[in-house]
Amino acid sequence: MNIPRLALLTTLPLLLLPTLSQAALPIPLGPLPHCTRSATLMHCNDGQGGFYGMAIQGNDLYLRGHDGLTGLGWAQTSTRFGRLLLLSGISSDGTVWFGFGRRMGWNVLNRLSTSAGDRIRLSCNRLKGCD
After folding, report:
1. What is the edge-to-edge ordering of all strands in the sheet holding 41-45?
2. Where are the alpha helices (DSSP H) in the chain?
3. Angle in degrees, CA 93, 87, 107, rounded to 5
């Protein structure tokens, strides 16, 4: 998968949780990030050399970060339309991705495709996490 790890980990909690204050809750896949936030902005460091920032404006979410493990910089834009979230992003190695998440009750169905031909399907539940 060519999508920077932080881009994916940053997006998935946002698909599960509706507000920025709740988005500070990470998926428990590694060390917890240290975050500083305001009502519409957040900046986090993951403790492994990676960092990312978020800004919310209306139904749009803007993400920008650096993956400390791969050394890739990345940017992503997400727009929410009701229960549907559309997202697109690009990394410093030229990889582009596009995807969507659809909330269905306590579950979110996620699909992502990359310019390298990778396809990712992920189902997440607010209580059980993602599988």
Report:
1. 34-37, 41-45, 51-57, 60-66, 73-81, 84-91, 96-104, 107-114, 119-125, 129-130
2. 5-16, 20-23
3. 125
Alpha-carbon distance of 73 to 128, in angstroms, equals 30
Question: Residue 96 above 70 pLDDT?
Answer: yes
In contact, 2 and 119? CB cutoff 8 Å? no
Residue that is written with structure tokens 């980990």 in the block: 9
- CA-closest candidate to residue 8, choices 101, 115, 104: 101
User: The domain containing residue 104 runs over which residues?
Assistant: 5-130
Note the residue count of the chain: 131
Q: Looking at residue 29, what is its pLDDT?
A: 54
Provide mean pLDDT across the span 99-105. 92
Reported in sequence order, the residue ranges of 27-131 that DSSP labels E, i.e. its strands, are 34-37, 41-45, 51-57, 60-66, 73-81, 84-91, 96-104, 107-114, 119-125, 129-130
State residue 8's pLDDT score.
53
